[in-house]
Amino acid sequence: MHDVKDISKSALLTRADLHEATEGEFKGWRTWTFDSFLNQSGPFWHRVEADRTVRCAFRAQKKHLNGHGNVHGGCFMTFVDYSVFAIAGLVLDGPGVTVSLSSEFLDVARENELIEATGQVTRAGGSLIFVRGELKSSERLVLTFSATIKRVNRSRAP
Hints:
By secondary structure, the protein is α+β, with helices and mostly antiparallel strands. About 20% of the residues lie in helices and about 35% in strands. The longest helix has 20 residues, at about 75-90.
């Protein structure tokens, strides 16, 4: 395992499938390109802040909305799952799978709103990582979440 003080060696920042935006609103932010579902659902972005916390974000587009003009709950959950792995990325160091994911929907978000996720790893054991966090639009809390990731042995990963 890498030195936790040297995040530059973290898989979150060094994976071969990372794409870094070079222009626009998310210039300097990164996203993963290996997952075709996320590629179609997003784009979802993440960055590591100076204090080593991970921030994730996306700009709500028409494709993210339900029939009432609000961001679809399934879109929120997809973004939460992306965010959980980004938040855990500094300690995950390899493949993992979502074991559980729960959320509380607190408010709606609409087209063109910037949705941001923040959170923390509450415990990282040998096989399980526990994460909790929240989604906000500006200062408005729209969703809270908690999740558990199971580390997967690289030789057994698909």
